[in-house]
Amino acid sequence: MLVKRACPVCRRSDTVTELKRPFQFTLGAAVMCAAGGGIGGVFWALGQEKEYRCENCPRIFFAHTRTSRVFRILAIITYCIVAVVVLWALVLMIKN
Ligand SMILES: [Zn+2]
């Protein structure tokens, strides 16, 4: 099901098109990938906001889709688990 986004300026949704951007491997994505052991980085990339353009204004704006929200939450959970594992490993190292 395609959910149309409403333009933040003219409030029209029939003139809004989703811009298909190639996956951008940014420095932030690389850092997130390294920190999250790959999985977190993939979730993080999928959790990025989608880019839309209104043909009426014309204006480019960013908005979250339902899918990107879910992946952002998954990314946050993954990073929490990674943080706990890293802290646990540090505690074990200190004890030994
Ligand atoms: Zn508009």
Distance between the termini: 54 Å
- Counted by DSSP, the helix tally is 3
Q: Tell me, what's the shape?
A: elongated
Tally of separate domains = 1
Provide a compact summary of the structure.
The chain is of the alpha+beta class.
Task: Give the helices and strands, then pairings.
Blueprint: E1 16-18, H1 27-35, H2 39-46, E2 50-54, E3 59-63, H3 66-95
Antiparallel strand pairs: 1-2, 2-3
The structure holds zinc ion.
Zinc ion is lined by residues 7, 9-10, 12, 15, 54, 56-57, 59.
Index terms:
alpha+beta, binds zinc ion
Tell me about this structure.
The chain has 96 residues and is α+β, with helices and mostly antiparallel strands. It has one domain (16-95). 49% of the residues lie in helices and 14% in strands. It has helices spanning 27-35, 39-46, 66-95; strands at residues 16-18, 50-54, 59-63. A three-stranded antiparallel β-sheet has the order 1-2-3, with no helix packed on it. α1 (27-35) packs across α2 (39-46) and α2 (39-46) runs antiparallel to α3 (66-95). The relative contact order is 0.17. The protein binds zinc ion. Zinc ion binds at residues 7, 9-10, 12, 15, 54, 56-57, 59.
